[in-house]
Amino acid sequence: xxxxxxxLVALAGxxxxxxxxxxxxxxxxxxxxxxxxxxxxxxxxxxxxxxxxPAAAEGLKRFYEEISGNRxxxxxxxxxxxxxxxxxxALGVYELGMxxxxxxxxxxxxxxxxxxxxxxRKEGSAGEVFAWYGWGxxxxxxxxxxxxxxxxxxxxxxxxxxxxxxxxWVFKDYLRATEKGxxxxxxxxxxxxxxxxxxxxxxxxxxxEKKILxxxxxxxxxxxxxxxFGRLEEAGWKRAYEDEVAVVYVRE
Length: 252
Known about the structure:
- The chain has helices spanning 3-18, 25-40, 45-67, 71-105, 114-123, 136-142, 170-178, 183-190, 207-219, 228-234; strands at 128-131, 192-198, 237-242, 246-251.
- By secondary structure, it is an alpha+beta fold.
- The protein folds into two domains: 3-105, no CATH class; 114-251, Rossmann fold (3-Layer(aba) Sandwich), CATH 3.40.50.
């Protein structure tokens, strides 16, 4: 989740809550619904922005009316705004500087597995390909002859399947395979014979992101958890192709 959206939720939520008695119930319902949608998928967060903006604007108007004429309250408000601007400015400068440095190093921006796709067409098996989520749309375009697992539409596709061969929510199967290590059952269900995944070097996080991930895993008791690659190799899959962008695993 983007930091900017969390800051918006915190600031807008604080001002709306401060004057909650003047906010209509239907607005609370709309804001709550759109916030839940935004937390479930980043693509829905703009709906929350649109929903919360009128209530936040009304709250700010009431806030300014409340402190008008109170020099001490105005002084505290000015200090808060200065602190907020400095914080946002510092984060912005850091992000621009860090991302710019990564661009210069050639490590910024999504890279696509063109050569790996060429290899799969020439040397790969006839079975289905299990691919990284971020490459789904590219594979829809470049490998139309294959049924892509998985692309960006699938987190939103949920239904009650009348046929046990198909999933109620295919994105859940993706998470089962990649995060819970239950890929054996998932791959058998969908006829997966090859795994197309980003090379670990390309996916290496920035040092501070890495520290946060390590802290989070330790907090959740996942410090010794095997990687997706490690689980595949342990289950007998072999690395059949590798370049600086992608790796391909196939069954032994």
